[in-house]
Amino acid sequence: MPHHRIGHSGRADGFHENIVKKILGSNIPIIVYVAPRGSRAASAGVFITLASHVAVMAPETHIGAAHPVTLGAEGKESKTMTDKIVNDTVSYIKTIAKNRGKNVEWAEKAVRQSVSITEDEALKLNVIDLICTDLNDLLTKVDGR
C-alpha cells in the first residue's frame, strides 16, 4: 500500500488541494503517516492526513491548527473576505472528514478555532486510524485492512 510520511506545518498557496484531490481520487489506498516523533500535521497537513484512506501518527506527534492564513493588501483582509475564506475552508475540511468517516466536528474546530491535539487524542476522537511506533509497526497493523 503506498504511503506518505508527513511532518507538515502547512502551505498557504493551495498546493495541498492538489494533493488532497489526488488522494481522494486514488483507486489505491493511501496511507499518511505523521512521523517521526516530534512531527506535526498542521495547516495543510491536516487536510492531507484526513484525506488519506488510512491516517496514522507516530507517538509524540500532533495534528491541527488548520485555520487559513492569508496575506492580502498590507497583510490584512476585510472581515467579509476573511469570513468567506474561513467558511469555504470549513466546508472543504468537513467534506473530506465525512468522506473518510472521520470526526467532522473536530475537523471544523481545527479550522475555526485552530485546535490541535496529540496522537492519543486524535485516535480517541476518530481523527486518525492508528498510532504506530515505526514503519514496521505500521505495515504490521495495516496488513489485511
Can you tell me about this structure?
Helix 1 links the parallel strand 1 and strand 2. This protein is of the alpha/beta class and about 140 residues long. The strands form two sheets. The protein has a four-stranded parallel β-sheet with strand order 1-2-4-7, sandwiched between helices.
Task: Output the keywords.
alpha/beta, single chain, 4-stranded parallel sheet, 145 residues
Residue share in β-strands: 15-25%
Could you give the count of β-strands? 7
Overall mean confidence score, pLDDT:
88
Continuous helix count? 6
> What structural class results from the helix and strand content?
alpha/beta
Helix content: 40-55%
The poorly predicted ranges are 4-12
What can be said about the biggest beta sheet? 4 strands, parallel
* H/E series: EHEEHEEHHEHEH
Principal-axis shape:
globular
Distance between the termini: 10 Å
Radius of gyration: 15 Å
Trace the largest sheet across and list its strands: 1-2-4-7
SSE map:
Layout: E1 3-6, H1 15-24, E2 31-34, E3 40-42, H2 44-51, E4 54-57, E5 62-64, H3 79-99, H4 104-112, E6 116-118, H5 119-124, E7 130-131, H6 135-142
Parallel strand pairs: 1-2, 2-4, 3-5, 4-7
Antiparallel strand pairs: 5-6
What is the structure about, briefly put?
This protein is of the alpha/beta class. The protein has helices at 15-24, 44-51, 79-99, 104-112, 119-124, 135-142; strands spanning 3-6, 31-34, 40-42, 54-57, 62-64, 116-118, 130-131.
